[in-house]
């Protein structure tokens, strides 16, 4: 997936940057999945990030997991290393109600 493709997405999307071997990413999976259950209209893409991965650099990802909340191709907010389902739900609610700039 490219940044250009992401910018063409319509509707609500969460891009999850991480790595399969990342302990923080593994620990966050349950709360991410649980929060997204309440938002079946939100597309969720997992992007395997790491050295030499251009998309993560284009989104200035420094720590994993990073969740980027996108509405109609525009970043609305992001969370870095979320540890609580409620903060993810709050970001999803905000994205649902936000008008892209």
Helix and strand arrangement:
Elements: H1 3-7, E1 12-18, H2 23-37, E2 43-48, H3 54-58, E3 66-71, E4 74-80, H4 85-97
Parallel strand pairs: 1-2
Antiparallel strand pairs: 1-3, 3-4
Characterize this entry briefly.
This protein is an alpha+beta fold. 38% of the residues lie in helices and 26% in strands.
Question: What does it look like?
Answer:
Helices cover 38% and strands 26% of the residues. It contains four helices and four strands. The radius of gyration is 13 Å and the shape is globular.
Low-confidence stretches: none
- Overall 3D shape: globular
- Proportion in β-strands: 25-35%
Compute the separation of the termini in Å.
Answer: 23 Å
| Number of beta-strand segments | 4
* Most strands sheet: 4 strands, mixed
Mean pLDDT: 94
Q: Could you state the order of secondary-structure elements as H and E?
A: HEHEHEEH
Radius of gyration: 13 Å
Strands of the widest sheet, in order across it, are 2-1-3-4
How would you classify the helix and strand content by structural class? alpha+beta
> Helix share of residues?
25-40%
Count of alpha/pi helices: 4
Name its key features.
101 residues; alpha+beta; four-stranded mixed sheet; globular
């Amino acid at each position: 997936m490219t940044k250009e493709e992401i910018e063409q997405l319509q509707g609500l999307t969460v891009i999850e940057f991480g790595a399969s071997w990342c302990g923080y990413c593994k620990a966050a999976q349950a709360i991410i999945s649980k929060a997204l259950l309440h938002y079946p209209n939100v597309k969720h893409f997992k992007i395997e990030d790491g050295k030499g991965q251009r998309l993560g650099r284009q989104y200035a990802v420094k720590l994993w997991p990073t969740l980027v909340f996108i509405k109609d191709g525009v970043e609305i907010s992001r969370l870095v290393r979320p540890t609580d389902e409620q903060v993810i739900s709050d970001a999803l609610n905000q994205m649902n109600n936000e008008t892209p700039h």
